[in-house]
Design goal:
Helices cover 8% and strands 42% of the residues. It is built from 1 helix and 13 strands; from the N terminus they run H-E-E-E-E-E-E-E-E-E-E-E-E-E. The protein has one helix at 13-27, and strands spanning 41-44, 51-54, 65-67, 71-74, 78-84, 90-91, 97-104, 110-119, 122-132, 136-145, 152-153, 158-164, 186-194. The strands form 4 sheets. Strands 3, 4, 7, 10 and 13 form a 5-stranded antiparallel sheet that branches. Strands 5-12-8-9 form a 4-stranded antiparallel sheet, with no helix packed on it. It has a two-stranded antiparallel ribbon with strand order 1-2. It is elongated, with a radius of gyration of 20 Å. The model has no long low-confidence stretch (mean pLDDT 90).
């Protein structure tokens, strides 16, 4: 569901609730009802008009995007990279991973990554996440595992990665990661990739 949540009026609420009850009846009450013999993966259509079932999880195609451009990230700054995508409609599934080489002696306590899809005048958050950092002079590789969400990316979109101390660097309305770093903090970023 897209925010703000419409969980109470979601069109898939009744079918989902019936399946939940069947699962609890089967695995908590021990009542055989066939829920354990159905295909193991079910994906709802968006907008909801039913679902599609699979015997196992469909094999996703892994996409790796890279930028070799280096940058200095300051306490109140941001580093953005925009990547071209295949021109067709895409859908994310699984956990995106952002990797970069970091170095610097000015403490930068944590690093936040926001991944968004942009097309014309719209920007949709695909995923985001963060990791703590320790200052090290020697360059070292870090990876940020982002939230596992399913997001539709319209055809013709580009992928934008925003790296900063807070998620508000991507948009003032993005209030997921609000804790900044100390003034004067800075870190060098290079060899940025998104998987």
């Amino acid at each position: 569901m897209n925010p703000p949540s419409g969980f109470a009026t979601a069109p898939d609420l009744v079918p989902m609730s019936l399946e939940l009850r069947k699962w609890f009846d089967r695995f908590l009450k021990g009542e055989p009802n066939g829920i354990d013999t159905q295909p193991r993966v079910e994906i709802a259509k968006s907008p909801f008009t039913g679902s599609v079932q699979f015997p196992s999880f469909p094999s996703p195609h892994k996409l790796v995007l890279r930028s070799t451009k280096s940058a200095l990230l300051t306490a109140s700054g941001r580093v953005q990279r925009t990547f071209a995508l295949p021109s067709r409609r895409l859908e994310t599934i699984g956990t995106p991973v952002v990797s970069t080489t970091v170095s610097g002696t000015k403490p930068f306590q944590h690093l936040v990554a926001v991944l968004s899809a942009t097309s014309e005048q719209t920007e949709t958050i695909v995923s985001e996440g963060g990791i703590p950092l320790r200052p090290q002079v020697k360059p070292h590789r870090v990876s940020i595992r982002l939230l596992d969400q399913v997001v539709t990316i319209p055809a013709g979109s580009r992928l934008r990665l925003t790296l900063a101390a807070t998620s508000t660097a991507q948009s003032p309305a993005n209030a997921l990661y609000l804790l900044g770093v100390r003034d004067g903090s800075r870190v060098h970023l290079s060899r940025i990739s998104v998987t």
